[in-house]
Design a protein that fits this description.
disordered C terminus; five-stranded parallel β-sheet; alpha/beta; about 25% strand
Length: about 425
């Protein structure tokens, strides 16, 4: 008897974010018969934000930090369309693309990442990373040509990204002298400032770790300013709410994260004040059950007691990883017309790396009901282990092992600071 061939269903993924990368990998390992997968992304490369501090320090190249979506789609037997989405028709279940024909979908998922939302147009935004990295490469060239360029650097936002950048920029500027740029007196000529509007840095961590981190940064020579709201970024510096000014030749925005502007009132889907798509705990958007959203562009309900921030899942890598695993099963259930299950965020804690100087964090908050505070060598080991878990999820065991061995071999000969 001839076996029944399942009807072809179209699963479309918009955005090559961390969650969709893992969804593709999981579908490649466990393909679903009768499902055609299409990934739509403006770029064929997806940078991983967790490697940004190492990229700033020169430990990772642009190739290291980027995930190539093309080979991943080939592995998952998925189509890759590099195009800009201009709209969605939820009635006809079609996606409008710039300079391309419309695309039909049965189930749609959005994972478009986030970007900084500065109060002024001046300064360089960390996110989206694919726009930040070319600008940073240009800045390195200018530093190489003019050793006094960017002698004062201000980082706005003292969350995990801002603190890690401050520590790595401090390290990088101190190691520049090894490249013959000894005309710089790093203690006098180079100044790094970290500015935070809240009453302490690292507000996601417990106060004791925030205080310890601030003391370490101060000992390193980083100027830490809390309770300092930025009102204006000028060509010569930053003006704060109290009227004081901070001299700065280079301003880096690491605060005010929001979802991309194109999601605001996108095709009638509900969004919040920072453009995130409002979703149920099933990760379905509130106005269309066939459209899902996850990662930083989604506002998924989560109580503060369960690790949420202001009632939604926080924008963390661990949340993206958990949602990717849950989304795989949700899509399979939706395509099979089965009931969906709610997603529950599990907070395993936070870790912040200060480069070679230290690592701090709190672990197991969502498992034992209270935070286990860790710092120093053990925290650094945990931080590196989490990064290796990311590589394993994307590349698999064999490739991750080869990449690790390659970096161990070349670490002794490669410079830690690259001024191309």
């Amino acid at each position: 008897m001839q076996s029944e061939i399942p009807a072809l269903r179209d699963l479309v993924l918009i955005g090559g974010g961390h969650s969709h990368v893992q969804v593709l990998k999981k579908f490649a390992m466990n393909p679903v018969p009768g499902v055609r997968i299409t990934l739509i992304s403006e770029s064929a490369l997806s940078p991983y934000s967790g490697m940004l501090p190492g990229y700033i320090a020169g430990a990772y190249s642009e190739k290291d930090i980027n995930i190539a979506l093309g080979p991943l789609c080939v592995f998952a037997k998925a189509r890759l369309i590099c195009a800009r989405v201009t709209g969605i028709d939820p009635v006809e279940n079609t996606i409008a693309l710039a300079d391309r024909p419309s695309l039909r979908f049965d189930v749609l998922s959005l994972n478009c990442g986030a970007e900084q939302a500065p109060v002024t147009g001046q300064g360089m935004r960390v996110k989206p990373l694919n726009k930040f990295m070319p600008k940073w490469a240009e800045i390195k060239k200018r530093i190489h040509a003019d050793t006094h360029y960017a002698s004062s650097i201000a980082i706005i936002g003292a969350g995990a990204t801002g603190v890690e950048l401050a520590a790595e920029l401090h390290r990088t500027t101190r190691e520049v002298v090894a490249f013959g740029l000894d005309r710089i007196d790093v203690d006098k000529d180079i100044k790094v400032s970290l500015i935070e509007a809240a009453d302490r840095i690292l507000p996601a961590l417990v106060p004791r770790l925030s205080e310890a981190t601030e003391q370490l940064l101060s000992r390193l020579g980083v100027q830490v300013l809390t309770k300092s709201k930025v009102m204006e970024v000028m060509p010569t510096g930053i003006r704060l709410a109290d009227g004081s000014e901070i001299e700065s030749e280079l301003v880096v925005w690491a605060a005010g994260v929001k979802a991309p502007d194109f999601l605001k009132d996108f095709s009638g889907l509900e969004t919040n004040r920072i453009n995130q798509l409002v979703v149920h705990d099933t990760l379905q958007t509130t106005r269309d059950p066939d459209i899902f959203a996850l990662g930083d562009c989604a506002a998924c309900p989560c109580s503060d007691a369960d690790g949420g921030r202001a009632g939604i899942v926080p924008p963390r890598a661990q949340a993206a990883h958990q949602q990717a695993t849950h989304m795989l099963h949700q899509i399979q259930r939706r395509l099979a017309n089965q009931p969906l299950k709610p997603y529950r965020y599990r907070d395993f804690g936070s870790l912040v790396s200060l480069g070679k100087f230290s690592t701090v964090g709190n672990m197991m908050g969502g498992l034992i009901g209270k935070s286990l505070m860790i710092e120093g060598y053990f925290a650094k080991l945990m931080y590196l282990s989490l990064y290796k878990l990311h590589e394993l999820a994307i590349h698999g065991t064999l490739k991750t092992t080869l990449i690790t061995l390659s970096r161990m071999i070349t670490k002794q000969t490669n410079p830690t600071v690259k001024l191309h």
